[in-house]
Every structure is written in C-alpha cells, then in structure tokens.
Design a protein that fits this description.
53% of the residues lie in helices and 13% in strands. By secondary structure, it is of the alpha/beta class. The strands form two sheets. Strands 2, 3, 4, 7 and 8 form a five-stranded parallel beta sheet that branches. It has a three-stranded parallel beta sheet with strand order 1-6-5. The longest helix has 27 residues, at 2-28.
C-alpha cells in the first residue's frame, strides 16, 4: 500500500504533465502556415488579381435590426456580400435569411451557437446543424465556413475539408474590429486605406450594437465604387482565382 502511494506521487504529476503537453501541442503547433493552407486550397485569406474586385463579409448574424439596415445599404450600391451565419440566429430570423438569399448575397456558415472553444466532433455537429438550418430556410446549401474568431487547428481544417467546406478568413489588414465599436471613421479608414484588389473585408452584423458598422458602410461603399471597385461574394472571388490560375498554368 505504501509502495502504491509512493508510485502515485510520481504517476499523477507525470500524467498531468503529459496531458498538458498534448493539449499545448494540439492547440499551438496546429498551424502549418498560411503558405501551406493556401497551396492546399483549404483556407482563403484573399486572392491575387488585377481586377478591381473586393469581397465584403459579415459575421455573427443575422440580427433583426442591423442586418436589414446593412442589406439596405448594400442594395443601394448593388453590392453583393457573404454572410457567415450563426445557426441559432438564423432560426430566430428566417425572413432575414430569405431576404439575403433573394437579394443575391452568399450564405455561409459560422457555427450554430458561436462557441469560442469546442471539440472537432462538436464543431462538425454545429456546422451540420447550421447547414440544415440555412438550407431549410432558403433551399441553398452553403459551401463556405469561417471559424469563430478565426481560430483553427490542423485537425479542424482537415475535418472541415473532408466534409467538403472551404475555410474562409479575411485579409489581415482588413479586420475592421467593428465589434469593438472603435468609431465610424476608424472603421472607414481601415477599409479605404487598405483596399486592394482581391481583398476580403471583415465586418460584424450581430453580437452587439452594429450601428457604427451600418454608418461606416454608408461611407465606404460609395467611395470604393468611385475608385472602380466591384463588390463580389467570396465564391465569385474564388472563381476569379480559379480562372487566373488556369491562365498562368497554360502559360507554363
């Protein structure tokens, strides 16, 4: 009995250490690097193109107040965009989802309950449930997924890719940080000063007061339009990338 107690003094700390090492390894050594994922075609941050196109994306909605206001602004400038939808919010606001679809916007997945941390099996359940919700409302089957807060591991990317989804991030310099309500001008300046062909811009429509986002869009869209930009969905961006890659391969 005494020997067992002595062994436990060594075994328990060792097990805790081993588990900690595994957790840290799983969480922090999970990124193979942007270059790897771009070449593998599993994650998109932006595309290289000379075409004056830019993709506006919105996370965390739909919101019963702010999403319709955002749709009004987008409609005013004939701008299509991609909405990364939280499934439980879609269930609460089916009419907004239907309006998004009817007005030509792209419906994509941003989990069902917006968990900050979850297991891969549970994430896949969240994705499936959100897919079913979006399809049930609009008849559209989403193909794009954005992880919460842009956090991912190698295992997550592999699992999501096996389910047939493309993971979409955003241009690093085009994170508007609008969820912090930093001020209308700051949101506007982030987008306009950094705007480049093929960019993906990150906005939020849900999760809080998005009045600043709506007002910022009213300034951003006409200015980008004046600069000759066309607003496209992420899938349209991918089509341009595909065509560009095909042309480059033909030249070789």
């Amino acid at each position: 009995m005494k020997l067992l107690k002595k062994l436990m003094l060594y075994i328990v700390p060792f097990c805790i250490l081993a588990a900690s090492i595994f957790f840290v390894s799983e969480r922090f050594s999970a990124d193979k690097g942007r270059k790897y994922y771009e070449e593998a075609g599993q994650i998109l941050w932006e595309i290289k193109t000379n075409e004056k196109i830019i993709a506006l994306t919105f996370d965390d909605g739909p919101h019963k107040k702010y999403t319709p206001e955002i749709l009004d602004v987008l409609n005013k400038y004939n701008a299509t965009s991609t909405f990364f939808i939280v499934g439980e919010n879609a269930e609460k606001n089916p009419a907004v989802i239907q309006r998004m679809y009817e007005e030509g916007h792209e419906l994509a997945i941003h989990t069902y309950t917006h968990p900050l941390r979850t297991s891969i099996p549970n994430l896949l359940k969240e994705i499936k449930k959100t897919h079913e919700t979006i399809y049930g409302i609009s008849g559209y089957s989403p193909t794009l997924f954005r992880p919460v807060e842009g956090q991912y591991t190698d295992g997550m990317i592999d699992a999501v890719a096996k389910e047939g989804y493309k993971v979409v991030m955003w241009s690093w310099h085009q994170d508007t940080m609008d969820w912090k309500s930093p001020g209308i001008n700051k949101i506007v300046n982030t987008v306009l000063k950094g705007a480049k062909e093929g960019n993906i811009v990150l906005f939020h429509e849900g999760g809080g007061d998005r009045g600043q986002t709506v007002k910022a869009l009213e300034k951003i869209l006409p200015e980008l339009e004046k600069q000759g930009y066309k607003f496209v969905t992420v899938s349209e961006l991918l089509e341009v990338q595909k065509a560009t890659n095909k042309m480059e391969n033909n030249k070789k």
